[in-house]
Amino acid sequence: MTGVRIAGTGHTRFGQFPERTGRDLFAEAADGAIEGAGVDRGDVEALFYGNFMGEVAEDQGHQAPLMAEMAGIRAPATRFESACASSGVAVREAVKDIRNGESDVVLVGGAERMTNLGTAGATKALSIAADELFEIRAGMNFPGAYALMAQAYFDEYGGDREDLAHIAVKNHENALENESAQYRTAISVEDVLEAPPVAEPLGLYDACPITDGASAIVLVSDAYADREGIDAPVSISGTGQGSDRMALADREYLARTPAATVAAEEAYADAGVGPDEVGVAEVHDCFTIAEVLAIESLGFFEHGEGIGAARAGETTRDGRLPVNLSGGLKAKGHPVGATGTSQIIELASVLSGDHVNSDAVPDATVGLAHNAGGTVASTTVHVLEVGE
C-alpha cells in the first residue's frame, strides 16, 4: 500500500482577527505548506478543504474552488463539513486518495472566521452542529451539552471540578511558548475554580475560546517524495472515522464517546499499532471534560480513570503520555474548520523534533490526533509515525 507523507505544513497564528477574511487566512496557511514542501504548485492534484460555518460567518458557500484560487493552484477542490471535525475528515479523504493512487500530491487544510460574529453570534452558529429539532429548539448549546456530559461522568465515575481544572492548567502551560497559540498565559487551579460559571459544572476556563485561523498540509506519496528528493520523515500511517447519534438524548452513553473508540480502533488496526505504543497525543479538548472522554475512548485509560490523569501528572509534559503539548483547543484555540489539520501539524512538528515542546518526548516515534465534531457525533483519528 502506498505510504502517505507530510511534506510541508502551514499555519496562521490562532486568535482574534475579525478584520481578516477566511480566504486571507487560508492563503497564508496554504502558501506556507506549499513553500515548506518545496513542491511545484502545478504538481498539486487536489485540494481537500475543511470549513464549518462559512455561510453563516461570511455569507460564503462553495468555498473549495475559492480556496484553491487563494492557494494559487488549479486542481479539483472539495469542501468537507463535519462540524469541528471538518478538516480531520478532509485529511482522512486525502490519505485515502493518495493510497488509492488517485493523486501523488494533495493540499489539505481548513479555515474558520468566527470572532467577527461576536460571542453570542458564534455560539449560535456553532449550535447548528447539534440536532435542530430536538436540541437547538429546546435552547441547547455546546457549553450546556458538555456540562450535561460532565455531570453524567461525575455521577457515574466520580471526579470533580478540580480534576478538570488541572487539565486547563496543563494545557495553558503547554501553550506558553507556542507561537501559534491564542492564549500564552499561565493559569492556576484557583483561577479555574474561581472563574465565572458558563454551564455548571463548567466554568470559563473549562471552555476553549472563539478563534480565527487556518492550517494546511501538503501530503505526498512515498513514490513522489522519493522521486523528488523530498525530506518528509513523518507519515500518516493510520486513519479511522466514527459516528454516533446526533442528540444526546438518543445516546446509549453520556459519559463515553463510542464514535472515538470506533475511529481509534480502525486507525490502530490500519497503522498496526496499539494505544500503548503512542508516545504523544493531540486530542479534541473543546471543553476540559472532552479531554477526559477522549483519552478514555482512545484506549489510553480505562473508563473512569481519565478524570484524574492530569491531576496525577500522567498527561502532563513530564507524564507517561503527554497530551496536547500544543496547548490543545483549550489554549491554542479552536477555529473549527482548521483544528483537525492543526493537530496533525503540531504532532508532526513534535515527532520530528522541531516543536518548542519536543523535548518532552525525545524518544516518541508514534503520535495520535483525535478530532471531534459536535458532542462527538463525528470523530476522526489519525496515527502519525516518524521514520529513522
Please tag this protein with its features:
single chain; 388 residues; alpha/beta; Peroxisomal Thiolase, Chain A, domain 1; five-stranded mixed β-sheet; four-stranded mixed β-sheet; 11 strands; Thiolase_N; Thiolase_C_2; Thiolase domain-containing protein
Ends distance: 19 Å
Overall mean pLDDT score?
97
Quaternary state of the chains: single chain
Q: What share of residues is helical?
A: 25-40%
Overall strand count: 11
- The CATH architecture comes to 3-Layer(aba) Sandwich
What structural category arises from helix and sheet content?
alpha/beta
Shape: globular
Number of domains: 1
- The succession of helices and strands, N to C, reads EHEHHEHEHHHHEEEHEHEHHHEE
Main sheet: strand order: 1-7-4-2-3
Low-confidence runs of at least 5 consecutive residues: none
Sheet-strand content, in percent, reads 15-25%
Based on CA atoms alone, the radius of gyration comes out at 19 Å
What would you give as the CATH superfamily?
A: Thiolase/Chalcone synthase
CATH class value: Alpha Beta
